[in-house]
Amino acid sequence: MAGQVFLVQFVIVVLLVAAAVAALVLQSARDALKEGKRESVVAAQAFANAPGVVKAFRSPDPSKVLQPRAEDARKKSGVDFVVALSTTGIRYTYPYPQEIGKKFVGTIEPALHGHTVIEQVGGPPLPAGKGTAVQAVVPVTDPHGTVVGLVSAGITVKNVSMLWMPQLPLVLGAGAGALVVATAGTVLVARRLRRQTRGLGPEELARLYEHHDAVLHSVREGVLITDADERLMLANDEALRLLGLPPGTKGRTVQELDLPEPLARLITSPGPVTDQVYRVDDRLLAVNKRPTVPKTGPDGSVVTLRDTTELAAVTGRAEVARERLTLLYEAGVRVGTTLDVGRTAEELAEVAVPQFADAATVDLLDSVLRGWEPTAEGWRHLRRAAISGDVRMLPVYPVGELITFSSRGPQMKTLQQGHGVLEPDLRQAAGWQAQDPERARKALKCGLRSLVTVPLQARGVPLGVANFYRMAGSPAYEPEDLSFAEELAARAAVAIDNARRFSREHKMAVTLQRSLLPRGQPEQEALDVAWRYLPAEGRGVGGDWFDVIPLSCARVALVIGDVVGYGLHAAATMGRLRTAVHNFSTLDLPVDEVLGNLDDLVVRMDNEERPNGAAAGHEGEGVTGATCLYAIYDPVTGACTMARAGHPGPLVVSPEGVVSSPEVPASAPLGLGGYPFETVQVKLAEGSQLVLYTDGLVENRGRDIDTGLAELRRALDGAVGRNPEEACQAVINGLKPEHPSDDIALMVARTRLFPPSHVAEWEVPSDPAVVPSVRAQCRDRLRDWGLEETAYTTELILSELVTNAIRYGAPPVQARLLYGRTLICEVADCTSTSPRLRRAATTDEGGRGLFLVAQFAQRWGTRYTTCGKVIWAEQALHGVAASGAGQRPVDVLLEQFGDVTL
After folding, report:
1. Residue-wise over 79-116: b if at least 16 C-beta within 10 A, else e?
2. Centroid of chain to Cα 834
3. Which parts pass through the membrane (predicted)?
4. Percentage of the chain surpassing pLDDT 90?
5. What are phi and psi of 393, to 5 degrees?
6. pLDDT value, residue 501
7. How far apart are CA 31 and CA 160, in angstroms?
């Protein structure tokens, strides 16, 4: 050991010396190069500025005058060469005369412009030897600044690089001194090691330790060694096992080991003990104690322990039974924590590993995973639902794969027989190997040895199979393991069937609810609308609903509501209310009347479903209530009329991104009966966003409604230029809980306004003589809009509506045309008398005006206002408009006179 340490020290010292020498050489070379550049520049400038140099350059024979002076300057300055050059780079001087007149090696162009050039080049031989030279080239100028020649001076790097040699002995001496100190230290350490090991060599020490360790840990007796202070110096593995001690007990006193009092007293007693029997837990231990008498050091004692009980097998079986009961209890707690079929299968596989199996898989019928009723026709096709255990090295079917089981395999047998199948040795299981011979061969090669497969049955109907595997290092399965696996599978099957039935009902409710909700946006041009609907998790679907309903005169109704309760009944009630809102909206009823009619409907439904005024106490009996918000937006005026029945109020995001809450009066929820509903009308700027939502978005078990509303405002605040889709997604991302306990419905509608150029309005005096002028104004406006092809039909409709208003209505009479997706004609007057479509008799002079309107308009109707009514007619601008398309209006009218039924 000491020699190895010395070798390491020697290598370290050598490396340090080599590094010091390399650093010294590099530093010396760098310093020498720097000094050489400085000396070269000084020498060259001194020669260039010497008196008479300019005159010499202009003499007839510059070399004759400059060569002696250059050699004299070289020897005095200590540089290796001083060379005078012409402006074309021809040498006038050189240490060796034979090089005079040749081309100078180096860069001279910057010097010709008055600059100094410093560079490293290689050139002709020099007195100092050939090598890379550091040279400076400076210009020689006359008093007028004209460059008349060049001077180069330099020194070879080979000469200056030897400056580091004088410092080399100091570095080598320091290294040698370090080696001497390391050698002396190695000798001292070697002597101390020999004294401490009592002269034993490494091989003898290793052999002694191996023998000691083998004897101590391989014997079937426990060995304890204590010192004079009753501290535990050594305890082998058997002693730790017999006494139930943790591994880190070395160094503790006997009193700290928490041993039974009789045994602790025996170990600490001074005298020897022979074969005394003591009970420790469920073991009977024979104890022997002898004192240790070392040559040096304090006295101690050696205690040996031997297990004399013959109840090991019985104890083992009792322990297995206890573990099985514990595992069954754990399975009852852990399996079935959710109502998800796949997760329940995973919980069964996880609870069985590693207490009962090294690996477990669960295969279920495809119909069970989908929530359908299982059938015997699907037994051969099962889908892998869960895998647990260290099966990375086993060639098992992955999760999600559809498996076709062989009729000879144990899985198919257990489904057909209705009880488990035991394969204690898979190497002898021909049916299991026939399922997939190649996969079975690889599994056996990886160590798979034993299998128990049991059916998962609930209400006598098989749902799938559970497979429990053991590897070669674990004991093979026995018949009692089969009965335990069947008990475990029976408990899990009930949870799986409950989850399957819940999944089926949940899917049915979700399907029903989604079928009742809007599937697409209706055609309208007043609002850009986006929505989100998220069903609740775990409690079944609720009764949240929403709708976008186009109304007459380009108006649009927005409605959102929530039926109290969950399940199919809530979804069905929601569908009835949505249909009722559509019907009431078609009648063009005011906002408060729509909510009033809905309130009456909910009361009637509640009375119908609660016979004799008492609920039957099960789902589907009674409607406990509903909330609703109903709004109508008019794109011509930008007015939005709203009312709410127990529903959260809306939010409005202005085009600048400011969020506000319109003061919509809160009214009682639907179903209480007899309470009025108050309305409010707000002006919405073009580009404003109206946000409607249900309480599931802002309120849940972990967040009250005030906190939710504040978070909703933050999600909407400052989003300038965001479209409704982006706004919906931002709100859902910011407020959706991880597991929503209530349905969430959200609707964002961005407003549009009719361009003023697409609206034409006229005040019509109560005189039938003005009808032609109204038709003329209508014709002019249609020409401006490029709708000449609809002029005749529109004039006919408008003149009929205006004439009826003048004849049967009350002033003032107003006419209006709206040009958008369709062409809308409106005539308003101050009476509430509604016109009625009828067939005129052949003898009647009138009564055919509304008939013509109905024939040539796509649809028409009457809308009541606070001061009268509005009769409107809508014409399609693209495609065939009315039922009378292709015929002239006069032809249609004449056909009515020829009708045999009149």
Report:
1. bbbbbbbbbebebbbbbeeebbeeebbbebeebeeeee
2. 60
3. 6-26, 168-190
4. 12
5. -95, -5
6. 83
7. 9
